[in-house]
């Protein structure tokens, strides 16, 4: 399969995005001192899934397949932000007698 500029550019974008997403989840797991062997934890399962997804050889994919992979990483980017920010969503802030959610 020929390597074109467009394909190489798409691979570079995917590599940057995947590293960002993976590192976000890894930092969360490490900062919260989660057991990386505990498969009952959503964050650990997500980390393991992302680790496997990063191992694929993107040069074996066509440009169309790379675009699908890119969309996968965009989805994982959004999903990981939602999952890792869930505890921020549930923090309550009290103001007088009114209780409201802090984003």
From TrEMBL:
Residues spanning the membrane: none
Lineage top rank: taxon: Bacteria
Residue stretches making up the Antitoxin epsilon/PezA domain: 4-83
GO molecular function: toxic substance binding
Gene3D superfamilies in alphabetical order: 1.10.8.130
UniProt xrefs under Pfam families: Epsilon_antitox (PF08998)
One of the GO BP terms on file: response to toxic substance
Protein's recorded name: Antitoxin epsilon/PezA domain-containing protein
Source organism of this protein record: Bacteroides stercoris
